[in-house]
Amino acid sequence: MSEPIAFSAAANAKIADLLGRYPRKQGALIPTLYVAQDEFGWLKPEVMQLVANTLELPLSSVLATAMFYTMLYKKPVGRFHVQICTNVSCYLLGSDELMAIAQAALGIAPGESTPDGLFTLESVQCLCACDRAPTLQINKEDHFKVTPAKFKELLETLKTDGVKLGPPVGWLADQHHAHAAHA
Amino acid sequence: MSTKPTAYTPHPMEKRVLLRDHLGVDFTRLENYLAHGGFKMWQKAMELGRDGVLAEVKASGLRGRGGAGFPTGMKWSFLPKDERPRYLVVNADEGEPGTFKDRYFLELDPFRQLEGILIAAYTINAHVSYIYIRGEYWNSKAVTEDAIAQLYKAGWLGKNIQGSGFDLDVYMQTGAGAYICGEETALIESIEGKPGMPRLKPPFPANIGVFGMPTIVNNTETLSAVPVILEMGGEVWAALGTPKNGGTKLVGVAGHVKTPGLFEVPMGASMRDVIYTLGGGITDDREILAIIPGGSSCPFLTKDEIDVAMDFDGLKPVGSMLGTACITVMAEGLTDLLGVMQRVTAFYQHESCGQCTPCRQGTGWLKAIADKMDEGLGEDAHIDLLISACNQIEGNTICAHGEAAAWPIRSIAKKFRPQLEAAIRQRAAAHGYVVKPLAAHPAA
């Protein structure tokens, strides 16, 4: 299908440390999937197989676990993963307006990525900072008490940064890959 | 990582023994934690011995702060007396919509929880502890991992801790975006690297828990209270609260209030005072339309149902529960209750693990009905259909996710029927539809 992939030495060291924490190898599965995701961007089929081989688990166990958890990505995610909380507390304080702003600014619907690979937009369940609603998360960073003006400005900054940073490595190839897999 | 803390004066209604962000000290640094009496209670635990600590925790009446309110001391004494290795698992998978309390310990005072873990692990004789932190809590995970690293470096974790002969390894375990993993057996499955599907009980985790071994699962706030209980003595802690509800409780107020935030009050504090005094009253001085008392799994309350004591028994008279004690306030005139209901149904549908049919299908039906109402295609009979679906989910599932999905929706359908009927008509009119009257419906 495609050339074989391997973990970097740093990733292998992390996985070795993780394996020491559990009496069974499968215990290390979820943290290892995070390591793989950090390394390869998302859990494409050959990455799942690599994790299965590394932890000596059946591929089916790896797939079952990866499929269950939303934060383990089964499709490519853009450079900036914008997740807007749309649950009750944020809804009461204007999250729908924030979502509308993001859709207009990025030209995509929740669950989609921009074709240039710079943005993925999603709604997320309660981020549990309701006293600072409305909230959103961009990659690993929280944003609290987000006003429409602040959010518009933030998106503009990210667009500028995105032009410099470009899409995640392998974005275009992965798009073709994902297309082919679903065709 | 965390913002530089600034000192402030808490409201006099508060009773702070756990919260201490008002001191303006950076408690993410071990030296600051130690300078404020940190790990003195570990020493006291060693003097008291296992039975002594257990006796203090039992005397304190501490009940699990995850929401279920199970007595902590009793839980600890359920472990079988055999030679199998034991585990202490910390439930820091905070995800109940409306809740924001464990985040405080994880981000601003991580050593409090870790000292509690050390004392609890010693008491139950566990040598490995996993802190299961919600996946989206990136900052909490970073602060906690850093705190763990500081403790290893200073000899407060690992082998022969401070010359005591007691060994403990603590590992930060990350969740991955599944609310259901806050259910203790789903959390155990997740630590084992499996999909977070709750287990049938019995066997209970105290006997067959993580990796098939005896396991105690405690919430972050529960464990953070343990050093404080040893410091003041179990009975003094108990006397802070109401009978059967010892101590203080972190409470949150959010939504349509003037001063949202996290506070600490004696167990049994008046919910009205918490909303109007600590929460500063309702936005624009409006009336309350509805209240969620402690996360969206709790049945909703009306404005006439808030004269209740905030403890694990105080909300029974109004048919709800304390839950996580983080209140969501919805104001008259600012709240689209049908929209709120739709969000709640969407959440529980999205988070159902899917193994029990009544929950998997039932939460889907609740969402489908709410969506239909939201899209202007609602009928009055749909309100009864919601109640009927809730009744068929409740009690028919392995874990409490079914009840968590059914109870809030049923409470809205029953207590706020006039508002829902009005909202159905408003939505329909906006789309140019006419609402079918109840009598015309074949099911009516």
Description:
The complex is a heterodimer of chains A (183) and B (444). With 183 residues, chain A is an alpha+beta fold. Chain A contains eight helices and four strands. Chain A has a four-stranded mixed sheet with strand order 2-1-3-4, with helices on one face. In chain A, strand 3 (136-138) and strand 4 form a beta hairpin. Chain B has helices at residues 30-35, 40-60, 72-76, 102-108, 110-124, 138-153, 184-191, 220-232, 234-240, 271-278, 337-351, 357-374, 380-393, 401-415, 417-430, and strands at residues 87-92, 128-133, 169-174, 215-219, 248-255, 261-266, 269-270, 288-292, 309-310, 326-331. In chain B, strand 2 (128-133), helix 6 (138-153) and strand 3 form a beta-alpha-beta unit. In chain B, helix 2 (40-60) crosses helix 5 (110-124) and helix 8 (220-232) crosses helix 9. The termini of chain B are far apart.
Q: What is the β-strand count of chain B?
A: 10
Order of helices and strands of chain A: HHHHEHHEEEHH
Strand content of chain B: 5-15%
Uncertain regions spanning at least 5 consecutive residues of chain B: none
Secondary structure category of chain A: alpha+beta
Terminal CA distance of chain B reads 58 Å
Keywords:
heterodimer; A: 183 residues; alpha+beta; four-stranded mixed sheet; 4 strands; B: 444 residues; alpha/beta
